[in-house]
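lol ok so funny story. i was supposed to be doing the assay writeup but got distracted and ended up predicting the structure for this chain instead. priorities right. anyway since i did it might as well share w the group, maybe its usefull for someone
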Amino acid sequence: MIRYAKIPTPSLGLLYATLHDEGLSGLYFEGGRHAPPIASDWREDPKAEPFRTLARQLHEYLDGQRRTFDLVLAPRGTPFQMRVWAEIARIPFGKTITYTELARRAGAAEAMRAAGAATGRNPLSIVVPCHRVVGADGTLTGYAGGLDRKRRLLELEGVLQPALV
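and the output, tada:
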């Protein structure tokens, strides 16, 4: 059974998290690309400890008080996706890498597009920081939560200067 909880944030909108018995399996932006719809057989369980811990750590991160997450994760994907997500998880706070570098680190240097596709399917947005993967020239490309959110996350980490309005 999949349990889920909705987590409101002031700067990124509503997120929802999913939990399997093994740990957190998803953190999605409401309306984000590749976010699964909440199914009728899922059970909302916002008081479950993993969700409370996630919400606390997420708010600490967004408030600039946390740089890494300490959570039990249980993403599900192909072996290649799992390798890509593991490499994304190793990108330090405040740093970025290119899709080309990500593919190389995942053991498939020639598979930049496949690494990009796996990045887009990352089920644990923010926690597995796919917002830290950028185009070959440093441009912001592709983000399941939208480029505005990617920009905000990179601004929060000091990688980008805040956009002037």
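Residues 31 and 145 are 8 Å apart (CA to CA). The first strand starts at residue 3 and ends at 9.
back to the writeup now i swear
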